[in-house]
Amino acid sequence: MSDMTAKIRKVFAENGGILRMVPNFVPRPFGTAGRRMRLHPDDYFAFGMERGAIKERWFSSVVEAMNGPLATKNEGMSYVSCSDDPEDKILFADFVKELGAELVGEDVFAKHGTWPMFAKFFDYNEALFFHMHLKAEDAAKVGRNAKPEAYFFPAQYNPHEGTMPATYFGFKPGVTKEDVKKRLELFDIADNHITDLSVAYRVTLGTGWYTAPGVLHAPASVLTYEPQWNSDVNSVFENYTGGQVYGRHSLVENVPEEHQDDLDYIVNMTDWEANLDPAYEKHYFRPPIVNHACDAYIEKQVVYETEGHFSAKELTILPGQTVTIADDGAFGCIVVEGHGSMNGVAVESPNILRFGQLSDDEFFVAADVAAKGITYVNNSKTSPLVILKHFAK
After folding, report:
1. In 3D, which of 133, 169, 130 has the Cα closest to residue 274?
2. 57 falls in which pLDDT band (50, 70, 90)?
3. Domain 3-286: which CATH number of 2.60.120.10, 3.20.20.10, 1.10.2020.10, 1.10.472.10
4. Residue 270: CB partners within 8 Å, gap ≥ 6?
5. 2 exposure class (CB count in 10 Å sphere: 0-12, 13-18, 19+)
6. Residue 387, Cβ neighbours under 10 Å: how many?
7. pLDDT bracket for residue 236 (50, 70, 90)
């Protein structure tokens, strides 16, 4: 047994199958940070000015961010904390590789051979550019996976809603592929105003959406909890937004080289039927569903009907309560309000974090531990303990 293997198994055993995760912040060179992730105001440019501000925090990730040649090693990949020393950490991907089904569950490991999803906090002060994530067949041509994703808007992390608290999805009825091509022809010439062809939906906190691969969208300026598939791949159809210009590279960087000047190919990467769905809100809006409510806790399904990819729940333990709750699979989680414990492991939502500091707000729970039931204790007499949980299918 190697030293790494021995350490992984030691940490896994000592923590009773509940892994404490290291905060995993990701910078982006585009957009303006919403500054709602409870990161210290001085730390948003911790990666350096050239990299841009920190605008995302990734959870339970075994994949790297698609962040260009300046990206640091393993950027976007989560680490497991092995002690109270911030430098004493091991990649979550190494835990998954070593423990396999023991960690992520028999069904998930047999189906995927890894932990196949991650979640993130997405925190921009303006609406992001109008873009899509590639469908499976198109992503495979550039060596990547398709990327379905879901959105949930937690009130606890939204003290302000930014400059554009509405998301554009798809196209208005009657828009044609020729209409879209005409906008893309302007990419190097002028503002293509492509969202003139789209429909914006006002964000309601405490609700969410599902976005399938191939659906064009411009996410709102609201901090969003986003469970999604293991991929970071897109094509940007909007060349100017939020005061920033996006070059043609952003449109074609995930298009095979031989098709980068072929607008028919690029437009056909979209899921055209879904983009023009006249009942888009009916089919893709996700209001929360209450799974259980009693004097001790409330559990809501906040991500569901994702074509079998992933799901998420919001668990609220009411003040002073202790409950034991079982789940049918391994999950990652982020504590968004309150403090208490999970099977005796201290959990706490931070008021403020310094970059590089450990926290007690993010964890990954092994499948068997989740199935046996976790005892949650809310140590506050006045505040709820609120936890968002993300699951793979």
Report:
1. 169
2. very high
3. 2.60.120.10
4. 132, 180, 214, 215, 216
5. exposed
6. 25
7. very high
